[in-house]
Amino acid sequence: MNDKMSNELVSVKNVSVEFDYQDNFLSRKQKIQAVKNVNLSIKKGSFVGLVGESGSGKTTLGRAILAANKITEGQVIFHDEKKDYDLGSISKKELKEYRKLSQLIFQDPYAALSPRMTVRDILAEPLEVMKITKTRAETDDRVREIASKCRLNLEHLRRFPHAFSGGQRQRISIARALVSNPKFIVADESVAALDVSIQADILNLLKNLQKELNLTYLFISHDLSVVAHICDEVAVMYLGRIVEHGPTRELFSNPKHPYTKALLSSIPSIDPEKQNKAIELKGEIPSSMNPPSGCVFHTRCNYANENCKKEIPLLNTEIKKDHLVACIRVNDI
Amino acid sequence: MMSMNALLDIKNLSVQFDTDEGRIIAVNNISLSLNAGEVLGIVGESGSGKSVTAKSIMQLNPYNTHYDEMGEIIIDNENVLRFTSKEDLKKIRGGKVSMIFQEPMASFAPAIKIGKQMVEQLLLHKSINKEEAKSISIDMLKRVGIADADKRFNQYAFELSGGMRQRAMIAMALSTMPKLLLADEPTTALDVTIQAQVIDLMKDIIAEYKMGVMFITHDLGVIAQTADNVAVMYLGNIVEIGPVKEIIKNPKHPYTQGLIDALPDIDNLDTPLKPVPGSIPSPLERPSGCVFHTRCKIYEEGLCNNEEPQLKSFSSNHKVACLKVDSNE
């Protein structure tokens, strides 16, 4: 346990994030529970995947860890070498330091880059804003260094983003996220907008940079095959809760939660001979304004019984080492 | 695949767009045909001309489109590219041919009830009255698995969830009983569990109504699970065409091979991901010779950059457009 603690970079403890929602100014104020009671420990140097369908709260959780969302309940602690940052009660000064340590790579490389700035200026801006470099020469050195790590040519630096293809733009986004020398990266659907032939290149780049720069990733994606290939461990989210968490291979070869099983069976196989029949889920993901009682998945689960409507399952049933499931019926199914 | 009674027969179709920077080639001299009851998958990356091909069939491309004189799209012995009258166009826009788009929110008018939109198009294409059109529409909504179809009939598109909207879109496209269905990335915007539901639904309906379907997607997994035949497109050219099983097991064109190698395969986690080097050239800088030569791993200087490869038969109906593919064997 002690060993695990010292190895931990981010610890998310019982975190909930709620948003206020009002349909129009006359209607009743409602709460949207985007993330509910989530526990997640991210080890140094790991590549953690966060999967789930739209509305499952993956992006909100990622943003909470970046201190970009208010945390309604619970604690997110970022363990840096010198000090711990408690993101729930972080001061403005600490937040500035924290921004250098954690960065975000966005989904759409077309929207993420300003069309009016050269690539050099895009990469230099974080350094100037965060006051990391003091002189222009120092800034340029750092920009060149990170550009070459992300396989951008020096000649590219003078150009504007419109001159680049989707894959190259995503490399610019990655370079910008890495220029402040962060330790932790949240990659939110960072390859979802790319063509397959380019996607593989960006995934390989992320993986190589991880080794080279000692990075830790939280990789948010809806694409299970991508996650299976690149992540060391995976957490599956449904309606704001983590329902299953484990080492990638273990989880993909031995899924336990009925939702994970259905999700994995839905991936269309590239082998035309293998006509896999997807486990059909009833209906669609319920609204997070009015989540079901007990286990939030019971309305769509093929195994749900009366107890599932009452009892809230905790992510504490250990299948194997590090493989946790939140399902009260896991031993019966 | 080439038969006399094909439902759809595209011959030497070339489509160009006039832009400020000059005329660009979107589709370059492609030929393919599709029979009733057959699903033809079209795969390719962005800019490969898949959607332009489908939209040409319904003449839905923008005003700056230029169709080459040589090209023909034959449906029921008529070249639909020559259609200009309203009556003729009606036949290919919702009559014999229907289309399902990627983004269902953008395909429904936001301020008109779904039912009204469904009835409206039925009245346009069939000689039936409003009551009949309503009952056909509600039956179709039920058929695609929408619960409370009577209630949904009177709702607006924004009141439906993404998966349900796509089902309603499919119901609308199918209610006129088209012979040919063009499905342009119909499941790309959906979550995997919903995608699986929609694919199952489409398969059932295709089999039941014996429709011909052109299924456009960038997802080879979806193609493998739905299509009978597949055409692989790159920069407006068909580089490989043939039965799905054969092409996925034994791809001949280096681009098809590259696409399959780049795809993360969940059943095979140990193989590293191999990207196709480089990126798709801009249509303004179309490579000479074989359009793929700038990214090809078996490129031969002097041959591939000079000569344009033609589709040649590999086995009975598996065709490949590559100059190196024979010597590669």
Provide the descriptors you would attach to this structure in a database record.
heterodimer, A: four-stranded antiparallel beta sheet, 23% strand, B: 329 residues, alpha/beta, eight-stranded mixed beta sheet, five-stranded antiparallel beta sheet, globular
Overview of the molecule:
The complex is a heterodimer of chains A (333) and B (329). Chain A is α/β, with parallel strands linked by helices. In chain A, 32% of the residues lie in helices and 23% in strands. Chain A contains 11 helices and 12 strands. In chain A, β4 and β5 (84-86) form a beta hairpin. Chain A is globular, with a radius of gyration of 21 Å. In chain B, the strands form 2 sheets. In chain B, strands 7-8-9-3-10-11-13-12 form an 8-stranded mixed beta sheet, sandwiched between helices. In chain B, strands 1, 2, 4, 5 and 6 form a 5-stranded antiparallel beta sheet that branches. Chain B has helices spanning 50-57, 86-95, 104-107, 114-125, 130-143, 149-153, 162-175, 192-209, 220-226, 244-249, 254-262, and strands at residues 8-19, 22-34, 39-43, 65-67, 72-75, 78-79, 97-100, 180-184, 212-217, 229-234, 237-243, 312-315, 318-320. By secondary structure, chain B is an alpha/beta fold. The interface between A and B is large, with 45 and 42 residues.
